[in-house]
Amino acid sequence: MKNAVTFDGDGRRMRVVVSGLLALAAATAIIAAVPVAPTPTAARAADITLIYVGADDCAPCRVWQSGDGVTFRQSSEFTRIAYVEVKSPRLHDLLKDEHWPEKVRAYRDSLKRSDGVPLWLLVSNGKVIAQRFGPAAWRASMLPSIKSALR
After folding, report:
1. pTM of the complete model
2. How many CB atoms sit inside 10 A of residue 94's CB?
């Protein structure tokens, strides 16, 4: 290699540059070969889903949406889960297919006529692990359940 690389034909050797480039190439190959494990955050987002159920003509729903809902959507917990909103213009029409995304319609079957809104379903790996309704239930039960599920 002593005579292999010259610069501008003036006979100066570029051993230092070539050695540096070879070291850089070796380091790049090592970094590229290291397997990247999914981060806990990325793994959690696929495992945990919060389904919010509410209606535009529901005063408690509007209060949650503009208060605790806004705060939650800005939280670190929110970035770690999947979130689906089921919202109807009228409370009377809340259970209609058109308001339920197809991927969460199966969870509608777990609702009782006596359940109120706003309502939250916390789903982990396809199973409902917490289901609560009413504004007081958010802080008392649902938010702690979300935090617990993310541990």
Report:
1. 0.70
2. 22
